Amino acid sequence: MFIILMGPPGAGKGTQAEKLTKEFALIHVSTGDIFRNAVKEGTEMGKKAKEYMDKGELVPDEIVLGIVKERLSKPDCKAGVLLDGFPRTIEQAEALDEVLEDLKMKIDAVINIDVSEEELIARLTGRRVCRNCGATYHIKFNPPKVRNICDHCSGELYQRSDDTIDTVKERLNIYNKQTLPMVDYYERKGMYKSADGSREIDQVFADIAAYLQNKEDEI
Ligand code: ADP
Ligand code: ADP
Ligand code: ZN
Q1: Which stretches in the chain have pLDDT values below 70?
Q2: Most Cβ neighbours (<10 Å): which of 29, 55, 65, 89?
Q3: Any residues with Cβ below 6 Å from ligand 2, and which?
Q4: Own/partner pairs for 153-157, CB < 8 Å, 24+ apart?
Q5: Helical H segments across the chain, by residue range
């Protein structure tokens, strides 16, 4: 299966991706995670990407598209992919169609996690991420068992530098302007499904998993 998980920053893409990739044995491809790793490793690409990420802006396509193509070309992706955080513009969606055609892959579903702006701000400003494995927590809504320590790997939790209120607002603006128009693109292709992301993590998961199970049975 090839699934695209979309939704505004803070909707719960990373959280759901962690559960869905386990349930459906998919490879998690997150452009945000790829950039954060490159920043951590201090590569040239990471340095360039960081300039945009810190401002809440999109990293330019000349950087993003090559990375996605390279990742999707790796043999492990043949087993199935969950794309998280890409595509984010209609141009990226079109570029992805070309890449998939070359790789003889096709999209099975595009799932949008829908959450109100007020809730997104509360989620993003309380988000904590594991420095080691990237698992996501929330200080109130999804706290780790031990404060500041990852349940999975005992890594230290940190707050992303772009999860401050001003950068969050800019990211939401950019989402509304540049990413939201993509809904139409996938709706016209008949592969779009919206999920109510305002509910508890497990309820959102149950809803998306049931939908994907049906899809898998069709394939
Ligand atoms: P969130 O989890 O808040 O939706 P991500 O982790 O997906 O955020 O992305 C963090 C940042 O990485 C974005 O604000 C942007 O600067 C950059 N980024 C991630 N994916 C893309 C993409 N597909 N195109 C351009 N920039 C991207
Ligand atoms: P995204 O990848 O879309 O930016 P995340 O998965 O990182 O979103 O989630 C953003 C924040 O909201 C995290 O702190 C996460 O623990 C929390 N969160 C995710 N889903 C829910 C939910 N259904 N209810 C409450 N908080 C949630
Ligand atoms: Zn961890």
Answers
A1: none
A2: 29
A3: 7, 9-15, 123, 126-127, 136-138, 141-142, 200-201, 204
A4: 155/130, 155/131, 156/130, 156/131, 156/132, 157/128, 157/129, 157/130, 157/131
A5: 13-24, 31-41, 44-55, 61-73, 90-102, 117-125, 165-174, 182-188, 201-218
Is the whole model's pTM more than 0.70, yes or no?
yes
In eight-state DSSP terms, residue 3 is E
- CATH number for the region 2-115+178-218 comes to 3.40.50.300
> In the block, which residue shows the tokens 């950019």?
174
Q: Which amino acid is at 201?
A: I
Q: How many angstroms is it from 32 CA to the middle of ligand 1? A: 5
Contact at 8 Å (CB) between 80 and 24?
yes
Q: What is the pLDDT of residue 218?
A: 84
pLDDT of residue 58: 96
Here the tokens at position 21 are: 């990739």
